[in-house]
C-alpha cells in the first residue's frame, strides 16, 4: 500500500523518515517552517556524537539528593530555573524515578540498545546516498577522566553497557598522550568505544538529507502543522499555519519539542520537556582532540568539526521561550580552553560562537516511537532527548516499516506513548 505521508518536522528524525518512506514507494510532503538543518533546530547544534553506547537515561540512582543544587546553582551542569520549577516538578519526579535503581537503568538500556546499535554504519550509508559521505566518520568515541577513579565512579553505567553488548578499550598514561597529545595531561585514563562514530556538521548533514529526499520526489512546504484532521480513527489531513489543509492519509509527528500538542490530538498525552543545551564553537582552533572526547571532569563533549571545534553539554530546565543564559556557554568555552592548553586563552572573540537548543525529552530518556492510540496512520517519532542524532536512521526505517504494513525490525513496545498513563 502506498500512502501520501505528511512528515511533520525536518530534523534528523523527520529527514530520515522521509528518505525511508520514499524508498518504500510512498508519496511524501515535509512540513517545516524553518530552514532544514538551520540554527533553530535541535539537530543543528548537538555534539555530533553517533554514540551507540548512549543507552542510559540522564537520571541515575541517588540523583534526587542533588535537586537542591540544581536549584541553587544556575551554572551547574544540570540546573532548574526557580521560576519554572513548579511547572517542571511532575516531569522531574518521573525523571528521577526512571533512573532510581540499577534494574530500571538496565531495562532502559535493553530497550535503547537495538535502536542505537550500528548507528555509525547506518549514518554512513545515508550520508553516502545524500552525497555528503565526508560528514560521517566511524573511528570510535572517547571518554576521558583525570584518573581511573573517575571511570570507576561511573562503573554502574559502564557495567550496564557491557551487559547489553557494548565493548570498549581502556587507554592509560602515555598511550593516551600519544593518541591525544593536545589534551591536558591531568587526564590520565580513557576508554574508546570503537563501534561509535561522529558527525562533522549535523546541520549540513540534515540539510543534505532533506535535499536528497526532495531529489527523490518529496515536497517541502515551509509551514508549520497546527493540527490533525481526524474522522474517527482515520486521518484526513493536516491543518497548516497558512490556513490551508494538506490532504493526506498518514502523518509522522517528528517536530521535536513542539510535538506534544499534535500527539495529544492523536490520543496520547506525552510528558515532553525541553532539556535546554548549549554549545560553543571555536573557529580556526590550532589545537584540540584527534577523536571526539567526552570529558568527565567538565561534563561536556568536545568534537572537532568541519566548521570548528565544538564543546557541547549542559542541561537547563526552563521554559521554552526563556532567554538564554550565555554564561552557561562561557563555562563550556572556559573548560575547553583549560582542557586543551595549546589553545590561545583568551580565544579571539570574533572566532567564537554560542548556541542554545532544545532537546525534546521524555522523563525516561526514551523516545516515543509508535503508532498513535487514536489513529494507526499517525506515527509518533519524537522525544529522543540526548539520542536524537544517533537514533535517526533506525527511527526512519521503523517509521517506514509501520506505514508500509511491515513488522518493525526491533521491538518498539518500550517506546509506546501508553507507558506514561
From TrEMBL:
The keyword Iron does not apply. It holds the Pfam family DAO. Residues 4-402 form the FAD dependent oxidoreductase domain. Coiled coil: none annotated. Keywords: Oxidoreductase. The keyword Oxidoreductase applies. This is FAD-binding oxidoreductase. It comes from Roseomonas populi. The lineage of its organism: Bacteria, Pseudomonadati, Pseudomonadota, Alphaproteobacteria, Acetobacterales.
Amino acid at each position: 500500500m502506498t500512502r501520501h505521508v505528511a512528515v511533520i518536522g525536518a530534523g534528523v528524525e523527520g529527514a530520515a523518515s522521509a528518505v525511508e518512506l520514499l524508498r518504500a514507494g510512498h508519496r511524501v510532503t515535509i512540513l517545516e517552517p524553518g530552514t532544514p538543518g538551520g540554527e533553530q533546530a535541535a539537530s543543528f547544534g548537538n555534539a555530533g556524537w553517533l554514540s551507540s553506547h548512549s543507552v542510559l537515561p540522564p537520571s541515575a540512582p541517588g540523583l534526587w539528593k542533588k535537586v537542591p543544587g540544581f536549584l541553587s546553582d544556575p551554572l551547574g551542569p544540570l540546573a532548574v530555573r526557580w521560576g519554572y520549577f513548579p511547572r517542571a516538578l511532575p516531569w522531574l519526579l518521573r525523571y528521577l524515578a526512571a533512573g532510581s535503581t540499577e534494574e530500571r537503568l538496565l531495562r532502559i538500556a535493553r530497550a535503547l540498545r537495538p535502536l542505537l546499535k550500528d548507528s555509525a554504519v547506518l549514518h554512513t550509508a545515508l550520508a553516502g546516498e545524500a552525497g555528503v559521505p565526508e560528514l560521517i566518520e566511524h573511528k570510535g568515541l572517547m571518554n576521558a577522566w583525570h584518573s581511573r577513579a573517575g571511570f570507576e565512579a561511573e562503573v554502574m553505567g559502564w557495567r550496564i553497557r557491557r551487559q547489553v553488548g557494548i565493548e570498549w578499550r581502556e587507554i592509560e598514561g602515555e598511550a593516551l598522550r600519544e593518541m591525544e597529545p593536545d589534551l591536558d595531561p591531568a587526564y590520565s585514563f580513557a576508554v574508546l568505544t570503537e563501534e561509535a562514530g561522529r558527525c562533522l556538521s549535523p546541520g549540513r548533514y540534515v540539510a543534505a538529507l532533506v535535499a536528497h529526499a526532495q531529489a527523490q520526489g518529496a515536497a517541502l512546504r515551509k509551514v508549520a502543522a497546527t493540527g490533525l484532521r481526524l474522522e474517527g480513527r482515520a486521518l484526513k489531513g493536516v491543518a497548516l499555519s497558512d490556513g490551508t489543509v494538506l490532504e493526506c492519509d498518514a502523518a509522522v509527528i517528528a517536530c521535536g519539542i513542539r510535538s506534544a500538542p499534535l500527539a495529544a490530538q492523536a490520543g496520547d498525552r506525552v510528558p515532553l520537556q525541553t532539556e535546554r543545551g548549549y554549545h560553543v564553537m571555536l573557529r580556526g582552533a590550532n589545537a584540540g582532540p584527534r577523536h571526539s572526547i567526552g570529558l568527565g571532569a567538565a561534563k561536556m563533549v568536545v568534537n572537532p568539526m568541519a566548521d570548528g571545534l565544538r564543546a557541547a553539554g549542559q542541561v537547563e530546565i526552563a521554559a521554552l521561550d526563556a532567554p538564554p543564559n550565555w554564561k552557561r556557554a562561557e563555562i563550556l568555552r572556559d573548560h575547553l580552553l583549560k582542557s586543551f592548553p595549546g589553545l590561545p586563552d583568551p580565544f579571539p572573540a570574533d572566532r567564537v560562537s554560542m548556541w542554545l537548543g532544545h532537546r525534546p525529552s521524555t522523563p525516561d530518556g526514551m523516545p516515543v516511537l509508535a503508532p498513535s492510540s487514536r489513529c494507526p496512520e499517525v506515527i509518533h517519532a519524537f522525544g529522543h532527548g540526548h539520542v536524537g542524532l544517533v537514533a535517526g536512521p533506525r527511527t526512519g526505517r521503523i517509521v517506514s516499516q509501520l506505514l508500509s504494513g511491515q513488522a518493525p525490525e526491533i521491538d518498539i513496545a518500550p517506546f509506546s506513548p501508553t507507558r506514561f498513563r
